[in-house]
Amino acid sequence: MCITFIRTFTTRINLFIAHNNMAIRQSSDMAKFKETLKAAKEVVILSGAGISAESGIPTFRGAGGFWRKYQASSLATPEAFRHSPSLVWEFYHYRREVAAKAQPNQGHKAIADYESRLGSEKKITVITQNVDGLHIRAGTKNLIELHGNLYKTRCTKCKEVLVNNDSPICEALAGRGAPDAKVVGSDIPVKSLPHCKKTNCGGLLRPHIVWFGENLDPAVLDKAETAMATCDVCLVVGTSSVVYPAAMFAPQAATRGAIVAEFNLEPTPATPDFHYYFEGPCGTTLPKALAD
Fold first, then answer.
1. What tens digit of pLDDT does each residue of 36-94 get?
2. Residues that bind Zn(2+), according to the entry (predicted)?
3. How far apart are CA 92 and CA 185, in angstroms?
4. In 3D, which of 281, 280, 241, 274 has the Cα closest to residue 33?
5. Of the candidates 114, 96, 104, 92, which has an alpha carbon nearest to the alpha carbon of residue 44?
6. Which residues are paired to 46 by β-bridges?
7. Dist. CA 160–CA 246, nearest whole Å
8. Mean pLDDT across the chain, nearest whole number?
9. Would you list the DSSP string of 99-151?
10. Residue among 46, 28, 34, 21 nearest 273 (CA)
11. Annotated active-site positions, please?
């Protein structure tokens, strides 16, 4: 844990120094960016909550990030699951149902279409911080999900990870999870929650999500870092650039010479590090940027 902290702190110091030295002036020249993108051999698209917010997915970050009376981030922890797995599962059942009703927007579709058209000519990698599965439903193939997926479960006993699209995931959660601030706690017995179906296991299942206080899967992180280390162009799409380690990816790429373009509703702390900045909804700006 100490090594991880030192590594992150050192990287942030180096990026701060690099930023002061680079003094990049952001451009909003779409035609020029498209020429740069056309010439690229390896492209990474890094997406965050902003692109899914346009499909109606709550971000659960900031002052408005509440479910019932709980700060949503307080439920996305191993400690919360140990204390009240029923309450945490109600919260994630709600999130699963919201995401299931949402549809990929024009931003998701533009990314998937870009990969479909040019994936045989370029190495195109989509790295997402989102867990809603909308990139997959839009048709993206080469996808790295940094923080897991709402529609995957992990057994707390045998550690098996499985895709699960059941609605509800178990009968006890049917009709539960509404964000009613008057509801406190959960009375669902633990034995009625999702459990592993393997004969010799039967362990309690949890959402396959990277919770606060947990590290990213090393294999997933390594795959993402490898893609970022070799890309010519990186598109930063709808991310606040404050969640680590993903917040370091694009600034590091810019520091080593990759061209980075940010697509967002408003500037972020990392915007000064990037070459291009396109303001507006991703569903509007991305189709323009990724079209032929």
1. 999 999 999 999 999 999 999 988 765 567 899 999 999 999 999 999 999 999 999 99
2. 155, 158, 196, 201
3. 14
4. 274
5. 114
6. 127, 236
7. 26
8. 91
9. HHH----HHHHHHHHHHHHHTTTSEEEEEE---S-HHHHHT--SEEETTEEEE
10. 21
11. 147
pTM assigned to the model:
0.89
One-letter amino acid for residue 3 of the chain: I
| Cα–Cα nearest to 289, from 235, 248, 211 | 235
- CB burial readout 1-31, b (16+ within 10 A) else e: eeeeeeeeeebeeebeeebeebeeebeeeee
> What does the H/E/C string look like for 75-105?
HCCHHHHHHCHHHHHHHHHHHHHHHHHCCCC
Residue type present at position 256? R
Secondary structure class of 287 (helix, strand, coil): helix
Q: Is 177 annotated as a binding residue?
A: no
Length of the chain: 292
Is 59 marked within a binding site? yes
For residue 92, say whether it is annotated as part of any ligand binding site.
yes
Please tell me the distance from the alpha carbon of residue 128 to that of residue 180, in angstroms, as a whole number. Answer: 30
Residue 66 known to bind ligand:
yes
Give the pLDDT confidence score for residue 64 in this predicted structure.
60
Alpha carbons 292 and 196: distance in angstroms, whole number: 47
Say if CB 45 and CB 237 are below 8 A apart.
yes
Full DSSP string of 20-43: HHH-PPPB--HHHHHHHHHH-SEE
**H or E stretch covering 71:** strand 70-71
Q: Which of 121, 123, 40, 109 is nearest to 287 (CA)?
A: 109
40 labelled as ligand-binding? no
The annotation status of 49 as a binding-site residue, yes or no, is yes
Q: What is the C-alpha to C-alpha distance for residues 287 and 79, in angstroms, rounded to an integer?
A: 41
What is the C-alpha separation between 153 and 235, in angstroms, rounded? Answer: 30
Separation of alpha carbons 14 and 8, rounded Å? 10
